[in-house]
Design goal:
single chain; about 240 residues; mainly alpha; Herpes Virus-1; three-stranded antiparallel β-sheet; two-stranded antiparallel ribbon; 5 helices; 9 strands; about 50% helix; elongated; zinc-finger; Znf_RING_CS
């Protein structure tokens, strides 16, 4: 839907009106036949039709294009009243800047920011409403530090609230202690498994060293026996030499 033509100041060119809703173009698109429409209007039309609502020429969503620049400029220069005129806003500005103004307009109806409150109030009166809103929150005046709603004043009990808070803290502490305990046990198990693996590796290395040492001792004994045999042979040879 477009902008209500009654909001505009002065004459509005016919070419700047939507061919479907007949209001001033909002987020406009143009068909190849040069008829212009609000985006929402033409998309809704093409759900049930496949032609232009003005001249019945065949059109498709893919054929729609942005408005010509000169038409877009003319559209943006149009002057119109703020939508909050009925609430007292007298601002008149260009269509190009109306959205920015209305987002910040002091006469805009906005919801109360307090949870549970359904009141819609003008932005300029929001602070005054928040000061008396029955859903406003504040800190307990008795010093318990609990945040309460005005509507709950008669039901608030500092001792009960503090007891509840204490129970929550105790439960949270127990949970954290259990988590820390499980984490430490997990780490100890991991370290224990690692130590067992290291012990097994070291034991295998020791056995391998023992085996190597045994082989070396056997080789040494063999060498010593060979040396004795060689010495005996030399002595025998010496004796035979003397006899000769």
């Amino acid at each position: 839907m477009g902008y209500d033509i009654e909001r505009f100041v002065g004459y509005v060119n016919e070419g700047l009106l939507c061919s479907i809703c007949r209001d001033v173009l909002e987020d406009p698109l143009q068909a190849p036949c040069e008829h212009a429409f609000c985006t929402a209007c033409i998309h809704g039309w093409l759900v049930h039709h496949s032609n232009c609502p003005e001249d019945r020429q065949m059109i498709d969503v893919s054929l729609l294009r942005p408005l010509y620049r000169y038409m877009k400029n003319d559209l943006n220069r149009l002057q119109l009243h703020c939508k909050n005129r009925e609430y007292g806003c007298e601002m008149v500005c260009s269509l190009e800047s109306i959205d920015r103004h209305e987002r910040e307009c002091e006469y805009s109806q906005i919801p109360c920011s307090n949870a549970g409150c359904t009141v819609q109030i003008e932005r300029r009166n929001l602070d005054g409403h928040l000061a008396v809103c029955e859903f406003r929150s504040r800190e307990c005046p008795n010093g318990c530090g609990y945040t309460i709603l005005s509507a709950e004043d008669t039901q608030h009990n500092c001792v009960a609230e503090l007891r509840t808070e204490l129970e929550l803290l105790r439960s949270e502490m127990i949970c954290r202690v259990e988590e820390a305990k499980h984490e430490m046990e997990s780490r100890l198990d991991s370290q224990r498994r690692h130590m067992v693996q290291k012990e097994s590796i070291l034991q295998n290395e020791i056995e391998e060293l023992k085996s190597q040492m045994s082989r070396m001792m056997s080789d040494v004994r063999s060498l010593m026996a060979a040396e004795r045999q060689h010495r005996q042979e030399l002595e025998q040879a010496e004796l035979e030499k003397r006899e000769l």
